Amino acid sequence: MGARAMVAVARPDGRYDCYHSQWGGEHLDRLVAWAWDDGVPPDLVDPEPVHTAVPADRVLARIDSRGYEALVAVAVDGAVEAYLVCRPGIETGRPTGTGAATAGTRDDAAASFVRDAAVLVPWTDAAAAARIRRFSRTAKEILGDAVDAGLLSAWLATAYLAVRLTRHPDVRSEIIWLPLGGATVG
Questions:
Q1: pLDDT tens digit string along 95-110?
Q2: Closest to 4 in 3D by CA, of 42, 50, 45, 47
Q3: Which of 1, 90, 94, 142 has the most CB atoms at less than 10 Å from its CB?
Q4: Residue 44 belongs to some domain of the structure
Q5: Are 16 and 59 in contact (CB under 8 A)?
Q6: Would the pTM count as exceeding 0.90?
Q7: Given this model, what pLDDT does residue 35 score?
Q8: Do 106 and 130 share a domain, yes or no?
Q9: For residue 138, what are the contacts with CB-CB under 8 A and spacing of at least 6?
Q10: What's the domain range around 78?
Q11: Residue 112: other Cβ atoms inside 10 A
Q12: What are the tens digits of pLDDT across the range 73-131?
């Protein structure tokens, strides 16, 4: 599958063209350092956008948190910000509470949150990204065991992991929650 990244390049009209990068998640340092006046880097980013003229408030809704590991946002002036896409949802062997019996209930909303929750964590460098990913994997395993043992709910474990990500020593600024179900941000 690769370490895929979405690259959102701002246009002068305030909209974004979004590109796919198969290996960009492993090479965020190269994407951040690229001189974007020269166009997209041909060895890292597909030449044709996957989405064009996306309004700024819809860019985050275009990120498939199961398919992308990173987001690179390029401003009109060439300033670049990179983010790791982290899914704090806790996977367990316990039933999720989805189905006809729980549709529209608090249990259904909690299951949706656990299944779909995703955050953007600001990327600073490759070493910090590796530490954040390792922390997230380890915490998810431990919290998953606690949920399986009935010590806490998957919803609470997911929310706890998201809070712990914001307090990780390598996270220098606030995380950004991705919209659930493609909702508009803003």
A1: 654 444 444 555 656 7
A2: 45
A3: 90
A4: yes
A5: yes
A6: no
A7: 80
A8: yes
A9: none
A10: 1-86
A11: 17
A12: 999 999 999 999 999 988 877 665 444 444 455 565 677 778 888 899 999 999 999 99
Range with the lowest mean pLDDT among 6-20, 30-44, 67-81, 103-117? 103-117
Average pLDDT over residues 32-61: 89
Q: Are residues 19 and 57 in the same domain?
A: yes
Mean pLDDT for the stretch of residues 143-147: 93
Residues 135 and 101 in one domain: yes
Contact 143, 90 (CB under 8 A): yes
Sheet containing strand 51-54, strands side by side: 51-54, 16-21, 5-10, 70-74, 80-86, 119-122, 176-177
Please tell me the total count of domains within the chain. Answer: 2
- Domain-located, residue 179: no
